[in-house]
Specification:
Helix content of chain A: 25-40%
Largest interface: A-B, 98 and 98 residues
Structural class of chain A: alpha/beta
CATH topology of the largest domain in chain A: Rossmann fold
Oligomer: homodimer
Largest sheet of chain A: 6 strands, mixed
Distance between the termini of chain A: 18 Å
Number of strands of chain A: 28
Number of helices of chain A: 24
CATH class of the largest domain in chain A: Alpha Beta
Chain lengths: 711, 711
């Protein structure tokens, strides 16, 4: 637990001062007053306004000094510039928490940011914690407190909602009313000058009346606090986050909206993954997922079945699972045999299970029972269309009897008027319903995605023992390069550092004589490649200065002579430094491992398809150091090329994935140990059925020695 | 016009016989009777049932023979097996159209298919056209006729709906009732034993009360009829089609559902594109698009602007446009200047146009007016969230005043209860509203996609004059290969055919002497490549049997000797056929052009990223021959690699796209002219800044000489 105990006073106050309460109906100070006093709140309320004696019959205090009691929470609805002075009076009334409503902070620029800083300094001085500024307030339905402007009192429920955007706070809560979605807490957090996501999630996540947390996020300020708090909550309670700004166009719009360099979106994605959060693509997904997760168990594996009384919608569901790369699971012979017993002969005999248009309530019930009994099935999407023989309500009634919590079941009800009663009945019996197969499937998949993420978080692993790491040597090398003001290392220098971290490289040696070449070839092991080494010959192939696949001493001797001859015939006055000898690497997959740095998220690692077209294919995944084997494995599995690496492709044999995992972990160790490594690239990392090598690479250094790690 | 005039009698009958009408309430024959007689239909209705005298007071005829009048339409609700005999009586009553309801046709297998054939033969004999079997019937709201079982009488409207699935016919029509969407016609077409999509679309599309056609499709039977009819309609009235089965998983489910090899889904996509239809991914999209297209003009270009009173939803909209590859358009200086005049200084100064949370109705109105006046803006998404100062209804009221039909405007209303009245007001004023930014953006984009497709259809182009086509020579070659029973041609043989169609190839010549090699190099032009030509040396590089980039006679002479020497030192007993000489082609993009054949859709062409990983990247597009330049250009533009071809990438220079267009057209001509070309592949087609060449390729022949073209 790491939240400040004062948050208890903030979100669960026994007394509230409303500073700036007014009787002018178009003002925020009135809206908040009204929302608090008419919402059923049982605590004490002190409206504060120097110019009023009463509002709608309620006594008004001219200043907090007039209140002769301690106050738990101050809701401040006066302009920002007046707040620093106001805070001086708080200690006297033991006020330690506040909600600052006014806009005019950092969102208007430097001047506003300074004002926020002044307020923050005063707050720190007096030990005051606050929400805002530029926020709408919050609601706590457990004590009937609707301490905000802009929303009606929410329905009660087990969900907590945190919104960084005031507009979406209002929009989503208004939507929730019409969709009958309930909340325990709803918090508008505004500019987060003091309280940030991390601490609030920690507080809300530890309340027993909170089972799920929804977040609308625009950007993080304090990544460290997020990282320290959130995973402890997410492994117990699902946290679902919607964040706009996925595409370049979206990010451009977001940065002009938030006026801040908000960090790159893919790094948010990576953070959510690492912290066990699941990301909803749209606000609609946010609610669908909340409904799915809060009403039904979370799928244990991605083995899903679709049951339907109409073929078309079954295909739509299968399609959508296909889009996620998770085709509906194949049914066991036993289950098919059981279904044969109770279904008409023309049933689909597979998944989707099409129980035909004339399906009775009993047929729905009995076939679902079989699917519930099949331990290989981990989640069920049931589709109902109102056909001539269909009895929707009776079907729901029968189905509810056999549903148990061993696996999730969601319903897709396709239709309108004829299904309203059925919809209500299912919802009341904790079975989520969706209007389209796509929504049900997306929700099932994202629920599983949450499971997968927290499983990865919880997974225990032994630390990987890494031999061949020469930290000291690398430190010395780096120190020397920086002293010499060389920040961009050559391929050769970079590979030397890779070697000292046990990263396999295709090392290149220079031979100045045939004998030396023979010795080197023996050391490296045949087959080898010879290349002319001359500063005057840039395009070695053009000069026929490359001889591949030399298999023995005899071939090597010939090749050595040949290559010198070719070079001199290509350019008679070329200065020949020697002939380079390196291992002959067979064709393989070209991969990339990289490390780079972001202002907000610090150092991060990348893995994926390498080669020239990296930025075009964008088949890459990311992770923050320290990258342990389980995270490295997940990084690899996230890419599309993983399937080819695992199974081989055409004449390329499958690759040793474990070795790639180890290389990623070694790269992670390298950047953890040496904060001076600003950027690093291994591209290509060539991987074939036999071996894996860094064929080319580079490192960019920085003189800074401060650690840049968020985990 | 190509529909059978009898369809007028079918869809707009003056008298109807209901064969199999009954008073048993759970039977289809009752449901149809009830739907017709109680829906307000003014024509004559003759219930037919040999065992009844009346149903609910309506006189029942024991057979159609008892009716002493001509009958326009027979709705047949008796088992299929009784229908062939029944049809014998139709002529007497001049019945020429029917709706066959019963199931038990091809969907149950061979026996059912035979029954359908018998019925079809009889129908042909008597000149009877029919819908079904295995369908629900239809509705024509213009004459208040609800001639089906399973749906309530639809609301009146200007949309026609055709569904191949009975279940979705019911589900969608039920949904439409609750969404208040109206129809002029709704048709369940069932097994399409006689009437198919093509003819029905032609009929409905020519009715003045039909402005938009919605289709739910599972599979086509008669592609030719579709191709002949649909484009003539789609260029005048939008046709929107939803079809399940996009992914492999979906297709698997679809084929088990329809029990037919339904044709590959990407070929449906290609067909829709070529015929000017737009495809909706989900049923929800189908309706959203109908609303957008029927209420507002269709965007002329993809230059869209987003106007919002909240930053977050603006970002969501920008994100979604980004996902479609169409970032919001940049606003002109002039427009920004005009907006500066009326907006508060903190507005976003860009697109999305964020007019800030306290936006008044007048601010909405005035800024939208400026966007309407900007001729560079071709479509507007307006977002409204109900914030504290927002007056949603008043905003709608003001905005409606300045909306004109110069460009489309859609609203996103984010919220619930607080926006219901506003929603209704906008809908009543022909402004489509959506609940999320994503839905509004998807709809705008798909509406534009429709425009783009019909623009391409309508675009006039001159026929490309193609020189260097030697049809006769290729005919002779192909004849000879087939006579010799060689169906799979070698690279060399394939390239020879390519050459005779003016497709540039990297021709390879064999030299058996240094002198011959010199002559060939002169003919080809330097630089050239020499390769050892020996059946005993497969891996030429391994034997150092390849010498690149030979620039002059002197280098060539040396290289020739060298290569023979290398080969013999690699394998002393190798049989040397000579040395092959070919042009040295610089590195370039690797593309693919292919042609293949589908059972249903016949011959089709493919273009895209080539090389080894074609199936992995799947960056390809398709088209049906004849592929004229405009279609070839569209094919290229559809791929992701197009951007690189156009702009270059890293050290690769931009490529001559026009030349690729020409090559695609030539390949199309080749397969049009020679139906024996079953499959064809050019992979890679190497394209660099200087030249484009078929570097490798193959052709597969078939002895059949029948044309396999759907266009």
């Amino acid at each position: 637990m790491s939240y400040d105990p004062k948050l208890e006073k903030l979100f669960n106050p026994k007394s509230i001062a409303i500073i700036g309460a007014t009787d002018k109906k178009h003002k925020v100070g009135y809206a908040i007053f009204k929302n608090i006093v008419y919402s059923g709140y049982k605590g004490k309320v002190y409206p504060i306004n120097p110019h009023l004696d009463q509002i709608e019959g309620y006594k008004v205090y001219h200043s907090i000094k007039e209140v002769d009691d301690c106050i738990d929470l101050a809701i401040i609805a006066i302009p920002l510039r007046l707040i620093p002075d106001l805070l001086d009076d708080f200690k006297e009334k033991c006020i330690e928490t506040a909600v600052i409503i006014a806009a005019g902070g950092r969102e208007i620029g430097e001047r506003g940011l300074q004002l926020e800083q002044q307020i923050l300094e005063k707050a720190r001085k007096y030990g005051i914690r606050f929400l805002g500024p530029n926020c709408l307030g919050f609601a706590n339905t457990l004590i009937d407190l609707n301490a905000n402007f802009g929303i009606d009192k929410p329905l009660k429920g087990k969900t907590a909602f945190i919104s960084q955007s005031g507009a979406l706070f209002t929009a989503i809560m208004d939507w929730a009313v019409s969709e009958k979605i309930g909340f325990s807490y709803a918090v508008s957090i505004g500019n987060m000058a003091d309280l940030e996501f991390g601490e609030i999630i920690d507080y809300l996540g530890r309340q027993k009346e909170v089972e799920t947390i929804l977040i609308y996020m625009e950007s993080l300020l304090d990544v460290k606090k997020f990282v320290d708090n959130v995973p402890n909550i997410s492994i117990k309670k699902p946290i679902i986050v919607a964040k706009a700004g996925r595409t370049e166009a979206g990010q451009k719009a977001a940065s002009s909206h938030t006026g801040a360099i908000a960090g790159q979106d893919f790094l948010y994605d990576t953070l959510f993954k690492r912290c066990g959060l699941v990301r909803a693509d749209t606000v609609k997904d946010l609610f669908n997922l909340t409904e799915g997760i809060s009403k039904q168990p979370i799928p244990k594996e991605n083995k899903f079945v679709v049951l339907t009384n109409a073929g078309g919608p079954g295909v739509m569901a299968a399609d959508r699972f296909g889009k996620w790369g998770v085709p509906p699971v194949e049914l066991s012979k036993e289950t098919i045999e059981k279904l044969n017993q109770i279904l008409p002969p023309v049933w689909s005999h597979g998944n989707p299970v099409d129980i035909i248009g004339d399906a009775t309530p009993e047929r729905y019930r009995d076939s679902l029972k079989i699917l519930f009994d099949d331990p290989e099935v981990k989640g069920i999407i049931t589709i109902l269309t109102p056909q001539f023989m269909t009895q929707p309500y009776e079907t729901a009634f029968e189905v509810v009897k056999i549903v148990n919590r061993s696996k999730p079941i969601y319903f897709t009800l396709m239709g309108g008027e004829k299904l309203k009663k059925t919809n209500e009945y299912l919802e009341n019996h904790n079975i989520p319903t969706y209007g389209t197969p796509e929504e049900a499937v997306d929700t099932m998949f994202l629920a599983y995605e949450y499971r997968k993420r927290i499983n990865l978080l919880k997974k225990k692993e032994k630390e990987l023992e890494l031999d061949n790491i020469h930290k000291r040597k690398v430190s010395n090398l780096i120190k020397r390069y920086i002293q010499n003001e060389q920040l961009l290392l050559t391929e050769h220098q970079s590979k030397e550092i890779f070697k000292y971290y046990g990263i396999p490289i295709n090392e290149t040696f220079n031979a100045t004589s045939e004998e030396e070449a023979l010795k080197l070839a023996k050391k490296i092991g045949y087959p080898v490649v010879l290349k002319i080494n001359s500063p005057d010959i840039v395009h070695k192939s053009e000069a026929n200065g490359v001889i591949l696949n030399i298999k023995n001493d005899q071939q090597l001797k010939k090749a050595y002579k040949q290559i010198i001859k070719n070079a001199l015939s290509y350019k008679p006055d070329a200065k020949i430094l020697g002939v380079s000898v390196e291992k002959y690497v067979e064709e393989g997959f070209e991969l990339i491992i990289g490390s780079s740095r972001d202002k907000l998220f610090k150092q991060y690692l990348m893995f994926g398809q390498g080669g020239k077209f990296v930025e075009f294919y964008k088949d890459v995944s990311f992770q923050y150091p320290p990258v342990t084997p389980k995270f490295a494995q997940a990084m690899i599995e996230e890419t599309k090329i993983y399937k080819l690496l695992k199974n081989g492709f055409r004449d390329l044999k499958p690759v040793n994935i474990k070795q790639i995992v180890e290389i990623i972990v070694r790269v992670s160790r390298l950047v953890e140990d040496h904060p001076q490594v600003l950027e690093l690239d291994i591209n290509p990392l060539t991987a074939n059925g036999k071996e894996i090598f860094a064929v080319d690479g580079r490192i960019k250094l920085t003189p800074e020695t401060e650690k840049h790690l968020i985990f």
